[in-house]
């Protein structure tokens, strides 16, 4: 009898092994599914690259950050002066940027404060030096031209440091320089006239 009891207990123990094995396999599958779900949750979305996004922000020039900040504040502006002329092909060199701002002169501190928040240094009341050394002049009235709104309708939309901005056309730049006629303006007008002449020849050649 003791041998029979021992044999039956052994048989029962062996019969339970498949059940325990099935339970173990089922538990392992659940853990595996749970592990895969966690991996999917943590995986970056297709087409997204956080490192690329950060790099893009770092590569944006201080001037373009300023332009974006002005737009965020709904402040209209246009690129004028020789920086605008050079952008349109005039063979000259300029170390600063002139932005005509659509605000009254008494509010000159508004764009200056925006620039200071972006890390610029104040040079004069309406001039700031950006973090990369570029000087920006905020202009509120242009001699020899009509109102900002009237001249704004004539602007060209051009790519400037990767951003599309309104740019004063060469004829208007020439007109403003003729009205002021500082010693350097005579040379600037000469280069503008040469460029306008080349553009006219180019247009005639395409007809």
What would your notes on this structure say?
The structure is a single chain. The protein is an alpha+beta fold. The chain has one domain: Beta Polymerase, domain 2 (2-Layer Sandwich). It is 57% helix and 15% strand. The strands form two sheets. The chain has a five-stranded mixed β-sheet with strand order 1-2-5-4-3. Strands 6-7 form a two-stranded antiparallel ribbon. Strand 6 and strand 7 form a beta hairpin. The N terminus is likely disordered.
The CATH architecture assignment turns out to be: 2-Layer Sandwich
Strand runs, count:
7
Number of domains: 1
Strand content: 15-25%
Structural class: alpha+beta
N to C succession of SSEs: HHHEHEHEEEHEEHH
What is the residue-mean pLDDT, rounded to a whole number?
81
How are the strands ordered across the major sheet? 1-2-5-4-3
Helix fraction? 55-70%
- Overall geometry comes to globular
Write the layout of secondary structure elements.
Layout: H1 2-42, H2 50-59, H3 62-72, E1 77-80, H4 81-87, E2 96-101, H5 109-117, E3 121-124, E4 127-129, E5 135-139, H6 148-152, E6 156-160, E7 163-167, H7 170-180, H8 183-206
Parallel strand pairs: 2-5
Antiparallel strand pairs: 1-2, 3-4, 4-5, 6-7
Descriptive keywords:
Beta Polymerase, domain 2, alpha+beta, 5-stranded mixed sheet
